[in-house]
Write a structure and sequence with these properties.
This protein is an alpha/beta fold and about 260 residues long. The protein has a single domain, classed as Collagenase (Catalytic Domain) (3-Layer(aba) Sandwich), CATH 3.40.390. It has helices spanning about 1-20, 50-75, 90, 170-185, 225-235, 255-260; strands at about 25-30, 40, 80-85, 105-110, 120-125, 135-140, 140-145, 150-155, 160, 165-170, 190-195. The protein has a 5-stranded mixed β-sheet with strand order 3-2-4-6-5, with helices on one face. Strands 1-11 form a two-stranded antiparallel ribbon. Strands 7-10 form a two-stranded antiparallel ribbon. Strand 8 and strand 9 (about 160) form a beta hairpin. Helix 2 packs across helix 4. The longest helix is centred in the N-terminal third of the chain and has 22 residues, at about 50-75. Residues about 1-20 and about 150-155 have low confidence and may be disordered. Bound molecules: zinc ion (ZN). Zinc ion (ZN) binds next to helix 4.
């Protein structure tokens, strides 16, 4: 028994060393939803946006794209996501996650992210209460960025350098992109890392919606759920859908060895 394990380990090491040079890596969070995803969208504070209706529609598009793509590839599975009616601001402003026990994925909107300014969206995993395990997604609508080019103003005697600050307010399309990405985390997907060089003009996001960054200056960017994400979800949940019997082994990452064993790329 021991020697068998050693042989498998060695094979993994050899193949992994090949994979780091030539393959992208896609990991899972090593956890999954243990029930049908039940998504609650919390209306943003009305003062922070005039475009709530558009943001709400964009949020729903980001959620349902996963369902559509999963049904396309595995039509015999049950991939229906429960999305509850949006909870108005006044119905949740003084409440806590425990007051929404029927939601296992919550999507909340904030104006800015004071803790980690570079994050456009975050997903927190709250599994410490056995009665109510949930994922909490925050979408941040406004971002301060420094303009790329420094504006240099020369005075008569002194020269002065002005760094332009600009506020980027997410468009509905960008909200959809961020929701799409964060929902992927809520289903158990980690980031898709590009380890081999991108071809000219190619972006990481062209390969997966789970690439770690989104370019806020690119207003046209349109993330899609791609094949690697769907194949990875199949490894986590099986082909029968959210409630299907769990696979014996949850695949941890889509390196070349998993590709050989499970065809996850
Ligand atoms: Zn992410």
């Amino acid at each position: 028994m021991k020697s068998k394990i050693a042989a498998i380990t060695l094979m993994a090491i050899l193949l992994t060393s090949v994979s780091t040079a030539h393959a992208d890596v896609f990991e899972t969070l090593k956890l999954k939803q243990d029930n049908r995803p039940s998504v609650c969208v919390f209306e943003a504070l009305p003062e922070i946006t005039d475009d709530w209706d558009l943001f709400e529609a964009a949020t729903l598009m980001g959620i349902y794209e996963w369902q559509i793509r999963l049904y396309e590839l595995y039509p015999n599975g049950d991939w229906t996501i429960d999305v509850h009616e949006t909870i108005p601001w006044e119905d949740h402003q003084h409440k806590f996650a425990k007051d929404f026990g029927y939601c296992n994925i919550m999507i909340n909107f904030e104006k800015t992210n004071e803790k980690k300014k570079s994050a456009i969206g975050t997903t927190s995993i709250v599994f410490n209460n056995s009665n109510h395990k949930f994922m909490f997604i925050n979408i941040y609508l406004e971002h301060e960025t420094k303009a790329k080019n420094l504006k240099i103003i020369f005075g008569e005697e002194n020269s002065e350098i002005t760094v332009e600050q600009k506020t980027i307010v997410l468009t509905p399309n960008q909200v959809r992109n961020v929701v799409l990405h964060e929902i992927g985390h809520a289903f158990g997907l980690a980031h898709y890392d590009v380890t081999n060089p991108l071809k000219p003009g190619e972006r990481g996001t062209d390969r997966s919606s789970m690439y770690y960054s989104i370019d806020l200056n690119d207003k046209e960017q349109w993330l899609e759920v791609k094949l690697p994400e769907i194949l990875m979800l199949k490894e986590i949940y099986g082909e029968d859908g959210w409630l299907g019997s769990s696979p014996a082994w949850i695949v941890k990452s889509c390196t070349i060895i998993n590709n050989l064993l499970f065809g996850c790329k």
